[in-house]
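Thread title: Can someone regenerate the structure for this chain?

I was given the following input by a collaborator and told the matching structure tokens would be attached. They weren't. Posting the sequence so someone can regenerate them.
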Amino acid sequence: LDACVICTPTFTHKDIILQCLEAGKAVFSEKPIGETPEDSRECYMLADKVGKPLFCGFQRRWDPTFSHIQDSVRKGDAGHIQIIKSTSRDSPLPSIEYLKDIRGYISRLHGA
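Best answer:
Regenerated them for you:
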């Protein structure tokens, strides 16, 4: 085992990340890394100390649809924004066969 993926409730991230790094594993975590800036700083400092990467996932940061919306808001094209609610899903939906085979998801993560 070379790396760990953290997909747990936010309040558990820091402790799990620190344990993984202390065990010499690279870590990919959903955002946020910690509940406070200090928690996140502690995790990144340990990653530097042990020489292992710590990645934070921002799954929609580079999504063209989200970038377009952000640009429209910044330009004022969308009017005065008070609140944005969003639900994100892969599109198109994967087939049932794909969903039944978790290896398909894992291989996609590794670019295979």
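DSSP finds five helices and three strands in the chain.
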